[in-house]
Amino acid sequence: MGAKMVEFNGWEMPVEYPASIGCGIVNEHMAVRTGVGIFDVSHMGDIRLAGPEALGAVQHISMNDASRLAIGQAQYSALLYPEGTFVDDVIVHRLGEDEYLLVINAGTREKDFNWVRDNTREFDCAVENRSDDFTQIAIQGPKAVDVLQKLTDADLSAVKFYWATRGTVCGLKNILLGRTGYTAEDGFEIYIPPDEETSARVWYEILEAGKEFGAVPCGLGARNTLRLEGKLPLYGHEISDTIDVWEAGLDRFCKMEKPDFIGHEALKRAKARGVKRTLVGLEMVDRGIARDGYKVLDEGGGEIGYVTSGSPAPFLKKNIALAYVPPEQAAIATTLKVEIRGQGVNARVVPTPFYKRPKKA
Amino acid sequence: MSYPDDRRYTKEHEWISADGTIGITDHAQESLGDIVFVELPKVGTELTKGKPFGTVESVKAVSDVYAPISGTVTAANEMLATSPEQVNKDAHGTWMIKIKAKDPAEINALLSAADYEKFVNEEAGH
Fold this sequence. Notes:
The complex is a heterodimer. Chain A is α+β, with helices and mostly antiparallel strands. Chain A folds into three domains: 4-42 and 134-229, Probable tRNA modification gtpase trme, domain 1 (Gyrase A, domain 2, 2-Layer Sandwich), CATH 3.30.1360.120; 45-132, 2-Layer Sandwich (Alpha-Beta Plaits), CATH 3.30.70.1400; 276-354, Elongation Factor Tu (Ef-tu), domain 3. Chain A has helices at 25-34, 54-61, 109-118, 144-149, 196-210, 220-229, 245-248, 264-273, and strands at 4-8, 11-16, 37-40, 45-50, 74-80, 86-96, 99-104, 126-129, 135-140, 164-169, 172-178, 187-192, 216-218, 278-284, 295-297, 303-313, 318-325, 335-340, 343-350. Chain B is globular, with a radius of gyration of 13 Å. In chain B, strands 1-2-3-9-8-5 form a six-stranded antiparallel β-sheet. In chain B, strands 4-6-7 form a three-stranded antiparallel β-sheet. Chain B is α+β, with helices and mostly antiparallel strands. The A-B interface holds A 4, 15-16, 19, 24-26, 221, 224-225, 287-289, 291, 311-312, 314, 341 and B 30-31, 33-34, 36-37, 55, 57-60, 62, 81, 88.
């Protein structure tokens, strides 16, 4: 489709599709906020845990409480090191009575799989790397449900956010459809057979079905700006093996009342100690764009932190960033500076997420 | 894509006309994607051939713009502070700065339209 490609963790991935077909990051971003966009996210990995003690295994390696999941339900969670820092963030799907699927990041696929396998040996449960068994396509935006409903017999109106179902999609039987995504918008992610012929056929059938809703193909560029507006963390940026759960502000996905999970002890101690840095949202006040890795300065020009992700926000039409700063400088409306090409440019701490999708009437 | 032959080009994807008007090429704007920010030098700034004189930012990337020749800035396009997307719309019709050349002969030593086009195609692996 003439997309600009980039190497991403060993995958050739589209950054953006051409302006000549109505794409480009801004158009792709806006399509997802106002209509629908289609993403090839096959780079995501999948780990299946199945067996009598699958729940125990999932509980041991993840910070959210998987015992609350009904069959067909999913939750945002994370795999932690004993230090309370991140192996990766994941979506945990409960597929069956004793069957779970972890959807993981591209850059951490091998590491995640080895981690899960090595840390669940005590449990009566099979751990399989299913990453190469699916092509994952994300259909995202307020019109995503209308597009996908044209292609499946599953009743999508009955599938709530962060639930999944199975159905026939584009003639393919028993396809997993999850109402999940990484865009801070309503949408679905579907898991289809990985062979090129099937993947390409389904991809073009979805685009065709989406035509009447203005669907466009979307690349990694828009995926990044969409997730940033929604303050969804990206591994290696907002979360990493040196950042813990409290610093990242992911408290509500971490269930400390769970008796034990990897990282629990360290997080208990860290909580008592208090954090030295915390993730805040910044909005540029003066002209300039904060970018990943730029320094954050206090009003006097002293270095106090760094930008984890920064970009123009196409829907909000502001220059926004996420940054780690000391808690004393994290209050909403605090004026800080971002160092851009040697100059301190004024920014303000603002509430996050920057963007929240409107509730359906 | 066609490149007007009333001007010269650089391998860093700038164009410059005989009177010292400078912009970036259509190929450059297309590679950058949606341009959201253009930072230009003040009038009177001395530029050195091959050194960055400004910055162009798209949604996804920050990119330097290099001086095709040495000289002194005589004008900067202020419209680009509020309408940077103009570069996407018409890269060859949207100037960034005008300079007084230190040595006007430097301009003619740059790439012709045909040579630049050949260079772009080779770079893209066509």
